[in-house]
What we know:
CATH architecture of the largest domain in chain A: 3-Layer(aba) Sandwich
CATH topology of the largest domain in chain A: Rossmann fold
Number of strands of chain B: 2
Shape of chain B: globular
Strand content of chain A: 15-25%
Largest sheet of chain B: 2 strands, antiparallel
Largest interface: A-B, 41 and 36 residues
Order of helices and strands of chain B: HHHHHHHEEHHHHHHH
Low-confidence stretches of chain A: 241-252
Shape of chain A: globular
CATH class of chain B: Mainly Alpha
CATH topology of chain B: ABC transporter involved in vitamin B12 uptake, BtuC
Helix content of chain B: 55-70%
Distance between the termini of chain B: 40 Å
Strand order of the largest sheet of chain A: 6-9-10-3-11-12
Strand order of the largest sheet of chain B: 1-2
Largest sheet of chain A: 6 strands, mixed
Mean pLDDT of chain B: 86
Number of helices of chain A: 17
CATH class of the largest domain in chain A: Alpha Beta
Low-confidence stretches of chain B: 1-18
Structural class of chain A: alpha/beta
Oligomer: heterodimer
Distance between the termini of chain A: 34 Å
Structural class of chain B: mainly alpha
Amino acid sequence: MSSPLVEARGVVKRYGPTTALADGRLTVLPGESHALVGRNGAGKSTLVRILTGLQAPDEGTVHFDGEPAPPLTDRDAWRRKVACVYQHPTVVPELTVAENLFINRQPLRKGFISWRRLKSEAAALLDTWDVRVDPEARTADLKVEDRQMVEIARALSFGARFIVLDEPTAQLDNREIERLFTRMRALQDSGVTFLFISHHLQEVYEVCQTVTVLRDARWITTAPVADLPRQALVEAMAGETIAEAAERQRAAEPAGPVLLDVRGLRSTAYDNVDLTVRRGEVVGLAGSSASGKIELAETFTGLHTPTGGTARLDGAPLPFGDVRRALEAGVGFVPRDRHDQGLVFGMSIGDNATLSVLDRLGRFGFVGTERRRHVATALIERLDIHAEGPEQPVSDLSGGNAQKVVMARALASDPRLLVLVNPTAGVDVKSKESLLARVDSAREDSTAVLVVSDELDDLRRCDRVLVLFHGRVVAEHRAGWRDHELIASIEGVDHG
Amino acid sequence: MADTKAPPVKPVLVTGTGSARTVLLRRARELALVPALLLLMVLGTIVNDSFLTERNLISILGASAALAMVVLAESLVLITGKFDLSLESVVGIAPAVGALLVLPAAQSGWGTEFPAALALLAVLVAGAAVGAFNGVLVVKFKLNAFIVTLAMLIVLRGLLVGATKGKTLFGMPDSFYSPATTTFLTVPLSVWLAAIAFAVAGLVLKYHRVGRALYAIGGNPDAARAAGIRVERVMLGVFVVAGVLAAVGGLMQTGYVGAISANQGQNMIFTVFAAAVIGGIALDGGKGTMFGALTGVLLLGVVQNLLTLAQVPSFWIQAIYGGIILVALMIARVTTGRAQD
């Protein structure tokens, strides 16, 4: 057995009070493709940041080829050892491929850049690694997959033979993924070692030889892919939840009439989606980050216009691509990120909670101050927001309470359809409970609820959970599903 | 997906003709304004006999030299992805500092009566100092460039008015006026200086690592940093260079006018931005060439000259000038086929 190319032992990393990585271990042998898997928050990205020299571990050691890792400040030394290709590009879009390859180390002639040599050296480099890209092309015009290959080629030209691919397939379609894998295998044959991070387990089985599983910031196992059947891999990722699977069967709800009826909805992010939500029904949408679940949910709130298909709300066509009209049609919305889309942080709780219903609070566009105060106070009580009053700025609130304000805004318009995207993200346990209690009460007043979430706890409240995979609905789980069943279909293990 | 048959790797190599076409297209973007410029020249020749004379053409160049320097300065800052509004006040205050140092107290100077050469050096130092100050605030303290330089614009203008008590400074040594008065091959020195400055800047931007670093920083600062470019240091340097260039522009303006009024350079920044953007410099960084910026300056210079020759009533000149800038922007948008960000 050859000595490991990369070896990390007992790595600990804390950010303030949270421990992002409690026991990180990784041993990568030269010439293999090594998969790193784990659910969100398992510590994958932290481990990658440490392995690529962006951060120093609080405890533990990292060795490359038996030598200790260089100091953080010695960027050149790191660059000769390891490179990471991220989901977001680290190239300059306006410059040509050739220039991006040799940025800040362009070949000189008498102190000036020799464009001819730059071009020929870039062509030679791309040729060496068999990257079929025109060195003269503007980098912004490249396909994602070609851009990734350019970044890999650049890393290789520094001498690095260990490449971290951070969810490289997230933005690719199936054919592009296959092409990327073909190239990965070719590079592997010429001596490049990969650390492959992906949420799609079948990809792990396709290109990797060894897999390391992280869970809850800890190393769980490292095993040859061939020795770890899919079921065992999912169990390693999900933990012991299989035994304690929630068995509670929800009392069969009196099925209300269909409120949201979606037929054959298509766009770039999802394809041919059929979906119904009844009055008083809570439907969950699950899937990995690239599954299109968020785009699908946002379509119903008027943020996107689908390229085909229909959606009817109570028989009337749902207006697409117009948030205002969707709101008027009776759609309430908790957006995916309260910092980006949810709240105006400079404004007060009252302003934020009533932002979407101002036209109901007065005439001719004037806002009745007293009425708004009244409405806002009622919302604060209804949602149990811990605040001094409607005048308090939202920026003072904790994450949980701020999220309740977002929820209050969604409920303020008395929606018929409530769309919740990651409703409990970054929220403490207690606020989580009270936010999810809202979902139950929405059921009682026969609102239809669509919940998009990565959190199993959110989805457990749902009457049904639909799973999206690469933009298609691939599975439906009735309430009472076991965790590993849902995770397996999210990760694409039981199909594909 | 495992059962999806992988198609054979398709060569995405662009063929020779395609590659030549993209290069040509990129060239075309740089040259976008040349047809418009030529059209204006033809129009001018038809409309007015005196337009296409050597004297008139040289006067257009002479009148545009100062603007050209400031546009050059602003373009460098814009390519790096930042803003510098205060350059128009540098145009006023930098030569004024030199004048105040050289003039006796009787002529509203500080009475230090520096030798002319030293005073001229002080002009450049003043420009550099303002640039460095802006740079430190923007780069090191991470303040918003737009607001910082807007404040500096006001502060510097106020300092100039305060230091001169609103009076116009004149009677400086001849060397203060020499950029505009001395000629070489019948063309004023200021024009030669501006031409050399543009040539050098263009060369550096295209053929020097520092120049390419500006594009990298403006296009994607994180990628630039990852590539080992000292982003902060380069940005700071760009602010300083821009200050110096604007100071030189101010000196040219002084020579052209023959004195330094307290509002020298005022409102110039709007024209500067117009010329830069018409010339294809992107406001959000990473795009544009010196040649483009130069055509932007020349276009505005020719328009200004034509309006004067056509004896348009002075009350209407501004409205027409602004309208023409708008039209030029639209033409540039159509010919380049790309959004102006």
